[in-house]
Amino acid sequence: MTDQLQGETCKELQAALDIISGKWKPIILFHLMENENLRFSELQRAIPEITKKMLTSQLRELEYNGIIHREVYQQVPPKVEYSMTEYGDSLTPLMKSMRSWGMQHLERMEKIEEENKEATTN
Question: Where are the beta strands (DSSP E) in 9-117?
Answer without folding.
Answer: 38-39, 68-73, 79-84
